[in-house]
Amino acid sequence: MSNKPPVQDDSDAKMKVGRPARAAAGLHGLTESLPQALSAMGPVRSAKTLLAMNQKDGFDCMSCAWPDPPHRKTAEFCENGAKAVTWEAGLLTVPREFWEANSVSSMRERSEYWLGQQGRLVDPVYKPAGSDHYQPISWDNAFRLVAGELNALDSPNEAAFYTSGRTSNETAFQYQLFARAFGTNNLPDCSNMCHESTGLAMGETIGVGKSAISYEDFAKSDLIIIMGQNPGTCHPRMLTALEEAKLAGAQIVAVNPLPEAGLINFRNPQKPRGLVGKGTDLADQFLQIRLAGDMALVQALAKRVLAAEDAAPGAVLDHAFLEESCQGLEEYRAHIANLDDAEVLAATGLRTAEIDELADRYLKADKVIVTWAMGLTQHKKAVPTIKEIVNLLLLRGNIGKPGAGPSPIRGHSNVQGDRTMGIWEQMPPVFLDALGKEFNFDPPRENGFDAVQSIRAMRDGKLKVLFAMGGNLVSAISDTAVAEEAMQKMKLTVQVSTKLNRSHAFTGEKALILPTMGRTEIDRQASGEQFVTVEDTVCAVHASHGKVEPVGTNLLSEMAIVSRLARAVLGRDHPIDWAGFEADYDTIREHIGHVCKGCEDYNAKVRRPGGFVLPHPPRDSRTFPTPSGKAIFTVSELETVEVPKGRLLLQSVRAHDQFNTTMYTLNDRYRGVKKGRHVLFVNPADLAELGIADGSYVDIHSESPDGIDRVLRQQRIIGYPTARGCVAAYFPEANVLVSLDATAEGSNTPVSKSVVVRLEKASVPAYAMGS
Description:
By secondary structure, the chain is of the alpha/beta class. The chain has 4 domains: about 15-90, no CATH class; about 95-190 and about 425-605, Rossmann fold; about 195-410, Dimethylsulfoxide Reductase, domain 2, CATH 3.40.228; about 650-770, Beta Barrel (Barwin-like endoglucanases), CATH 2.40.40.20. It is built from 31 helices and 31 strands. It has a 6-stranded mixed sheet with strand order 4-3-16-15-14-5, covered by helices on one side. Strands 23-30-27-29-28-31 form a 6-stranded mixed β-barrel. A 5-stranded parallel sheet has the order 10-7-6-12-13. The protein is globular and about 75 Å long.
């Protein structure tokens, strides 16, 4: 095992570019992940963690929210799950000498990759006002300092409490309870930047903003349409479910600007065919859509479905379902009849025959799932796009029956559970009423700040304290330069973290880093060993038990941190039993059962093998908790993004060896990139039109209405089979190009998938002169 940070040049000096892969997983997945685990954790710790991951008595993987199958394999993890565990449970720790040797200013010059490779944080540290260094601090003094700053505010609304999707249900519930007991609804979270558009669109149309299918529905489906999603990198275990569906007879259609290896061919490492054979071809059809063209495509499909009904009245639509359970069909039908076919082709970049083929598949399928991720949610028209998916599914009754329904796929392990537990800046009155009744106080009712609004409020002097429960807000949010500057205007920033990231380098006048235990680690409190719970992307709630000893003796669990924070801020005589929550997590679960809808008898339910599934009326009984009690067809005007000649439309993507802002290595095996991240993927035909050579270096500038020149410099061009008129860059580096004011209508999610950009030739980096 290594006890020193890896030495790897992260300047792209040794970058190599090869051909993109045509298959995912297979033997490469094992040879890439297992040696890393053994090197970082050793054989015993590796076995204890990897074999317990996603098991009924083990811990939940932190790298995505993909659900666990009913019958689990011995190795119920994927390549990136193994890398996530290695990243968290490795034995390398940050020594106290690090803080003397590395100033905050010098950390700003380091890459996200370098910071994360320094090891686990094991001691709380404090940066005093006027200092450029963190220094060790005791836990008691850290909480005392936070309490002093929070209690000195003119209003509780001058503080914001951010939450990452890795936070457990128990911590999330206690955290939002503390924020509201303190007096604010400023509870931004990572969902604001990913599936907020989904929650709003589905909430307004079917009454529930979560996936309306179960894991088993994939294998029961006739047709699965995958839109704006890369399962092979972002949730690789989904490929197993897609393979099961394919072998059961389902057709699979991929809709995406980039061809993704996992949707071309899957080599299941659990099967001999996947290790040494040909694997399974997944996508029967690939529609290489232009960015922001999804809404036009779905409307075009609906137009064809309605035309088929006109040609054969009563034979196409699910009339009984539509009459009994839906409203607004006639208005929708009249609107879609006027859809401009030429505008659809221009917006999508597709051929009429391709759209006809998909429509034919849809019409022949009795059970259809449409699944999507951030490729759909991060556009200006994201909310109406997802509403159009609901419209399409409603037409033929593809909701509330086995093998059918809308299925947003969450990319963060418990972001959905956080929302169930009350982490939201605009929780409905029914939740706040139940919370107030349970704890005998009046929660604040005014909506708080979401993530984008929080950065604006920091910039404008409306916030003075930020407390972040996990995450890396500076890197994850749009308009990086604005976020960095805004953070430095704060009086105090506090980060609860397992490892270093760039949010630790852009701080308020005072700053704290509070190290916390990871999900892999055994959590011992006064009443004994504890477990926590999480909710996956299909509303299943289950327990997560740590399996290995913590890497440091001075670590606190997230539950302990929030409990002690609350006691320090609100006083030890506060009527809520914060100390009891820390001592025994069953105590907080009893309250969850009384407050959170669907969580009644929570302690008993989560102790069942495999946990339990939260109620979902549209899925369970074809009932819709909307104001009218019916599913709602919506009318949305098609609006395409205008891209001037000589410009491209940008999307940000993850590399394969990456989870959100965390980089496990600098490689992207499936796209053929090794040891580099400063790249742009552009169609060779677009490069020819622009007069830019493959392998050359460019600066990429975004063009937004505010006229500010946002630029990402010295990016290497890679000729790549992406959709014409589009360019892809890595997240979070590309966030610098996204204006803070460029957000989706209604959801306020950053529009990281539809930014108009121009490419300008750049000076070649010195390290590339001889390459």
